[in-house]
Amino acid sequence: MTEDLSTVLEEILATARASQDRGKVADYIPELAGVDPSRFALSVVLADGSQHSVGDTDVGFSIQSVSKVFALAIALGRHGDRLWARVGREPSGLAFNSILQLEHERGIPRNPFINAGAIVVTDAALAGHAPREYLGELLRFIRAAAEDDGIHINDAVARSETETGHRNVALAHYLRSYGNLLNPPEMTLGAYFHQCAVEMTCAQLARAGRFLTAAPGMPRMVAPGRVRRINALMLTCGHYDGSGDFAYRVGLPGKSGVGGGILVIAPGRASIAVWSPGLNAQGNSKLGTEAVEHLARRMGWSVFG
Ligand code: DON
């Protein structure tokens, strides 16, 4: 049964505030380790354009892997379906930063959202451009999608990951050894770390996701067929080895980031952003997942009917 949205949002906020187990804040990027775990925000933009938010919706956070959705839209815009020769479209069943599968699959990452796949997507999005030009385009895309020019990259976060992102360095060199990285690894990684360091508020992220709802009146950044495909990948791969569980519990496409943000799309109905910095064992926001599970159930939103 469809409930009144503002009542449901208040209910979710109260549950989140009372929660004892908030998960664990990511600390492998030192700059993220100091984020206050008690932060919580949830914002929903409906198909009629109205926005409804609760909690710390105006506090900026690092979107990290949520940026992979915007990068994919740009890379598909540049290369179309040729991109799929370099990266697969299957769930990985492994951690976001795993190197294991890459050897088995001879340098073709399983999907565009695990780190190896996202590094290939960023490499493809560079397409002969300097990282600065690509990052400028990425910001223009996100700002246009959100209709907000205040969105920026947090250089301290990018620097912090540049200094400590040894696994990603390994993945990039491994990809290069298979000929699936066209730019020097340091160059692609520089672009990738800055892309992950895009900072937004929860309210801004919900607006930036509107183009994926395909609802009339929402910004149209990519063709409708491509919107469907991006949503399909978010549903099947957006939460790494937690993707099946997220699809089961929430029933909507979503993309998480280790900053604790999740972008969730209710096609034709709403763009939803949630932020709670504590993560579960799969590196996805713990309370964020619980919050959108609650929201989807109470609103009757699901791609499965
Ligand atoms: O590459 C990394 O490890 C980070 N910049 C992004 C990882 C991430 O957000 C995984 N998502 N849950």
Descriptive notes:
This protein is α+β, with helices and mostly antiparallel strands. The protein has two domains: 2-64 and 199-299, Beta-lactamase, CATH 3.40.710.10; 67-198, DD-peptidase/beta-lactamase superfamily (Beta-lactamase, 3-Layer(aba) Sandwich), CATH 3.40.710. 45% of the residues lie in helices and 12% in strands. It has a five-stranded antiparallel beta sheet with strand order 3-2-9-8-7, sandwiched between helices. It has a three-stranded antiparallel beta sheet with strand order 4-6-5. A hairpin with a 3-residue loop joins strand 8 (261-266) and strand 9. The chain is globular, with a radius of gyration of 18 Å. The mean pLDDT is 97. The chain binds 6-diazenyl-5-OXO-L-norleucine. 6-diazenyl-5-OXO-L-norleucine binds next to loops.
